[in-house]
Amino acid sequence: MPTLLQLKNVTKTYGSQDTKFDALKNINLKIDSGEFVSITGPSGSGKSTLMHIIGLLDNPTSGKVILENKNTSKLKENQLASLRNKSLGFVFQQFNLLSKTSSLDNTILPLLYSDIPQKEHKKLGIKMLDKVKIKNKASNTPAQLSGGEQQRVAIARALINNPKIILADEPTGNLDSKSGKNIIKLLKRLNKEGKTIILVTHDLSLAKLANRMITIKDGQIKC
Amino acid sequence: MLKPNPRELLKSSFKSIFKNKTRTLLTSLGIIIGVTSVILLISIGNGLKSFINDQFESLGSNFVIITAGKIFNEEGGFNNEGAYTTFSFNKKDVTTLKRKLKNINAVIPASQSTVKAKFQDTIKESMLIATTTDYAIYRKQKLKQGRWFNESEQKKESKVVVLGSKIAKNLFQNTYPINKKVSIGSANFKVVGVIEEVGGTLGGPSFDDYIYTPLETGFNFMENDGIQSIDIAVKNKEDIALIKKETEKILLDSYDEDKFSVFDQNKILSSINTILNTLTIALTGIAAISLVVGGIGIMNIMLVSVTERTREIGLRKAVGAYPRAILLQFLFEAVILSVFGGSIGILLGSIGTIALNNFFPAKVTIESILLAFGVCCAVGIIFGVAPARRASKLSPIDALRYE
Ligand SMILES: Nc1ncnc2c1ncn2[C@@H]1O[C@H](COP(=O)(O)OP(=O)(O)O)[C@@H](O)[C@H]1O
Ligand SMILES: [Mg+2]
Question: Is A61 helix (H, G, I), strand (E, B) or coil?
Fold first, then answer.
């Protein structure tokens, strides 16, 4: 399988001068298309920071992020936004759904910023909700959904632009263990259908379900 | 190219705003009040203007008017001091004008004095106008009862009067006034006619309160035997300017230029319009201050909204929104709030104008609606820019981490 994503000597330093703190230290990482990788490690080890850099939400202090053979460090803000829109799908611990907004409208939010014509938005949204098995709650607002259901809507939203990679940062962190398991099963299924999945979790039992497990400690990859 | 296109963005802004109806309404309140008052004030100003113009038109417009005193100032407004002149014209001036002016229908002198009119136990203050039969003809007086005094009564200096509708009503109540006697000063006058109501002159003395008598009769019984004003009824409208000039020339032979004024209706009309316009603009300007206050209210709420929705902004950026899309979304929201308030204001102002119309001439104009609408858009943009810029500059990471 071809390399989809590569990190070369990535370092992230927060603060300045005396408050300087290296959250990531010289990270080298290669992820192939179709992989299911889990990133695990204790709280504060730099998992989210790594995820944000992979997701082009944040710039590394030094080093390179190469996505689909493109060096992203030279891209402008708008180009990064377009790349996030087309190639990446995000799933967050806090779901981050818009309140008072239906599942369907939440799902199709990324399409608003895409080239896909508006008349196809609804159809695509329903299709994605169907894929995550929550089509019957398309008109519910987040307040009318359980945590697990909200996370399904968030996954539908991550899938809508048909991205290559799904980035999930502690997607089960706000869920009970049963709904958490179901979410991981869903990610597993999406991986079987060809999506590259990067899952951040501090739960070892869940991390082990991935094809490859990366452990990170004090901003460094352990194995 | 901007994604989404502005139309979709507008739709999305609409959705965001109307998720919180109470807040939307409260935020727009300042704009609603401001626009309502602006619309109302402009309506009242315009209504007054057209009312006064109509009144003038109904009085007949082919006149050159001469009054004692300098009643206009240099800016075209009214000159207060001129109204208190003791100067007056005499009968010789009237005959001279009649003799020398061409293309005129009549020269109509009028002598005014304030009097107390009495019928039985009722006494009323009134203005006595001593004039001629021509006044009725060229000033288009319509009589409700009886008739105007005639030529022979004028020649014989008979003690007859014609009453304005209001003074007639006040003096006589339910009694039929024709041929009854009214005492004015030391003498008794026979009522020969009552004029139809002409309506208010907005606070000033009303024609409906006036009493008319033949010129010489007036001179015989009043202390006043001067003529304070002379109307020249002109045959053709086009001659007004020329006749005005000639009149001035004739009068300057006998009097100084600061003793009298010669003008036509248009002059008075344009003076009144100048005053009304100034007044309307001043009042509208004051009302417009509340629009600024409303705009600040919108800015305030939008800033709160940006803070509240920090996570939403982060999310939108994470899923691909350009900073400019965020900027426009929040700018549109501010403009929608302000235009929403403006539309309600326009509606309320129009309803208010219709209600006012029962008591007062007022009418909404397209211009005032367009003006209000334009000002609202501008207020939305001006006061929306700061919050929108703040939103667009948030970094997605900080926004997503925001608790
Ligand atoms: N914006 C920031 N400024 C300063 N320090 C930060 C910032 N974000 C994260 N950190 C620090 O970087 C370290 C790694 O954080 P994070 O990547 O969120 O850890 P994890 O997700 O593994 O729990 C932590 O010590 C955290 O305090
Ligand atoms: Mg984390």
Answer: coil
Give residue A96's region: left, alpha or beta (phi > 0; psi -120 to 50). Answer: left
SS3 state of residue B279:
helix
Where is average pLDDT lowest: A197-206, B189-198, B264-273, B331-340?
B264-273
Nearest partner of B396 among A84, A189, A74, A67, judged by Cα: A84
* Chain B contacts to A (CB-CB under 8 A): 3-4, 8-9, 12, 15, 19, 311-312, 314-325, 395-397, 400
**Residue B250 within a domain:** no
Q: What is the pTM of this model?
A: 0.75
Amino acid letter for position A161:
N
Cis peptide leading into residue A117 (ω within 30°):
no
DSSP B88: -
DSSP A166: E
Residue with more model confidence, A187 or B266: A187
Point out the domain boundary residue: B205, B232, B259. Answer: B232
Q: Do B50 and B361 meet the contact criterion of CB atoms below 8 Å apart?
A: yes
Nearest to A57 among B9, B15, B396 (CB): B396
Same domain, B212 and B130: yes
Give the range of the structural domain holding residue B372, as residue numbers without chain letter: 6-53+277-401
Convert B263-276 to b/e letters by CB count within 10 Å (16 or more is b): bbbebbbebbbeeb
Q: Same domain for B300 and B377? A: yes
Give how far the C-alpha of residue B85 lies from the chain's centroid of Cα atoms, to the nearest Å. 27
Taking CB atoms and an 8 Å limit, are B318 and A57 in contact across chains?
yes
Q: Which atom of ligand 1 is nearest to the CA of A47?
A: 22
Q: Convert the pLDDT of each residue in A26-55 to its tens digit.
A: 999 999 999 999 999 999 999 999 999 999
Distance CA B310, CA B335 (A): 20
Distance CA A29, CA A65 (A): 10
Query: What dihedral angle (degrees, nearest 10) is formed by the CA atoms of B13, B18, B22, B24?
Result: 30
Q: Whole-angstrom Cα distance, residue B199 to residue B279? A: 23
Is residue B271, in this structure, part of any structural domain at all? no
What angle, 0 to 180 degrees and rounded to 10, lies between the N-to-C axes of helices B265-308 and B366-393?
Answer: 20
Claim to verify: residue B228 and residue B282 sit in the same structural domain: no
Answer whether residue B355 is part of any domain: yes
